[in-house]
Specification:
globular, 129 residues
């Protein structure tokens, strides 16, 4: 008889298509710096899509390389459409401190390490991989 000390997990992943925003290097007080970005994921009918915003930590060297390639286009406010796969999600409560949404507490799904893979076939604006 053999026994297994292997742990089992229930994984939740979100796969989709969305616009890339706010690429940045995050330097926490504790821990190592990491690459992060926002994804405005498309949801609903293509004739009237809605957006779901994800603030993610970019994991994996290939994903980091691809996101960094898009940094200049995002800073120039060009629309960069990406395919993505998110994992290890949770919700974080926060309060808007300034801007047009500076009123109530908000809730935003997050998920470092979240950007697990990118679909290179979905690049727009001449950034075809």
């Amino acid at each position: 008889m053999t026994t297994s000390s292997e742990k089992s997990f229930f994984d939740l992943h979100i796969t989709g298509l969305g616009h890339l925003n706010r690429i940045r290097e995050v330097k926490p007080k504790k821990g190592e710096p990491f690459l992060a970005c926002d994804i405005a994921a498309l949801n609903g009918p293509s004739s009237a899509p809605e957006y779901r915003r994800f603030d993610v930590r970019v994991s994996g060297s290939e994903a980091q390389h691809l996101i960094r390639r898009c940094e200049e286009a995002v800073k120039a406010e060009r629309k960069v459409l990406i395919g993505f796969r998110l994992g290890d999600l949770w919700t974080d409560i926060f309060t808007y401190s300034k801007g047009k949404n500076s009123w109530p507490a908000g809730r935003q799904p997050e998920g470092p390490p979240a950007l697990r893979e990118l679909d290179q076939g979905r690049w727009r604006d001449g950034l075809q991989g």
